[in-house]
Amino acid sequence: MQQNEQWSSKIGFILASAGSAIGLGAIWKLPYVTGTSGGGAFILLFLLFSLLIGFPLLLAEFVIGRSTGKEAISAYKVIAPGTKWHWIGYLGVFTCFLLLSFYSVIGGWILKYIVYGVTGSMNGAGNYEELFGTAVSDSVSVVAAQGVFLLITVLVVAKGIQKGIEQVSKIMMPALFLLFIILIARSLTLDNAMEGVSFFLKPDFSNLTSETVLYAMGQSFFSLSVGVSVMVTYSSYLSKNENLMQPAFSVVGMNLFISVLAGLAIFPAVFSLGFEPAAGPGLLFIVLPSVFDQILFGRVFLLFFLALFLFATLTSAFSMLEIVVAALTNKRGSGRSRAAWLTGLVIFIVGVPSALSFSSLSEISIFGKIIFDAADFLVSNILMPVGALLISIFVSYKMKKDLLRNELIQGSKSLSGIFSAWYFLLRYVVPLVIIIVFLDSLQII
């Protein structure tokens, strides 16, 4: 890999960026919250906030990365030399490092369930809640599965941008869409499937509360992988000739589209067979196996779902590891493989306590939370909002307005008209919203 390696195509960049954004939260948490928080009304709210908050932040990171051609830490140094602003990059690298340490644990759980499905260990399991408890409390296999998940991640990232991340994303993202179409087709043919569709998509503004509005605000930037400078690193590999608007809109649109597809695949089947929708890991590891138990060829469709979740988890993991590796190597080809393997090993070691949080280390508490939940809270409720706030301030107050305008309309002069709106949102609206979400997440307001 050369110093100036780039994405081989715009579609490769879009798919890799969308893969980074489309993670487990978009597939299992957002559909559930949509269903319980107003259905179509919540989707409209989420779309609005994605365009007003997530989209400006995503563009801000694209501008930082593409304008400098540098990874997360060096990019801030180039724009603001001799200042402390590059600590935003360090914050992003640390956040992704910590996030991947416990995110890989969930990836390991998915791998375990794929093994269960292939070997037939789930056949006739009956009590899937008990099976899930047994699966996550088996210390040896959980740590081993976490290691295998990180091994796959390292193997891809070590190959570089074009031959590694881009090539695999071009396979996994279309496969993810195809699996969704197959699952939706099966789910919608079940009896009473429309009841689940209605639960998910029917607008009900009476269910919109201040809590769900705040969640929609927060999710609008959390779900796009912004705030941790991942998109700074990814966009640094983008050609100067490419317009930034189109990939940004594409990533936002694909993220929302995947969330809708997930809901259409899950809820018709759940409601058709009389199950209650559940949030979090329970939906994937407890409810869905029970649902597919009652469907012809259900085990095959469950494996499809598990593969889908694995693809979504891996494409996000690639970006988390890439930002660390790029920072360590300063995007140089020499040492990339060594840095990927070393970083993967350290992340694995740091993540072991999270993997053991449900077994041998379950008694250890940090501010009343097990290690896994404490790490999740630190990343989701503190580090990511702070990072997003600092990036919005840095771009709108520290970077020169002419540079921003030139980067934003590069490749399409007709887009100059929306620059003022983007700049206004990033400078005034986005920071205020992030502060509100941040204070709410800490239960200060």
Please give a structural write-up:
The chain is mainly α. The chain has helices at residues 10-21, 24-36, 40-68, 72-79, 87-119, 128-137, 139-158, 161-188, 193-201, 210-222, 230-235, 245-272, 281-292, 298-329, 336-355, 371-398, 401-409, 419-441. The model has no long low-confidence stretch (mean pLDDT 87).
Strand content: under 5%
SS field, number of helical segments: 18
* Radius of gyration, in angstroms, nearest whole number: 21 Å
Helical proportion? over 70%
Largest β sheet strand count, sense and barrel closure: none
Summing up helix and strand content along with how strands pair, one would put the structural category as mainly alpha
Total count of strands: 0
Mean pLDDT: 87
One letter per element, helices H and strands E, the order comes to HHHHHHHHHHHHHHHHHH
Poorly predicted runs of 5 or more residues = none
Separation, N- and C-terminal Cα atoms: 49 Å
Say what oligomer this is: single chain
Outline type: globular
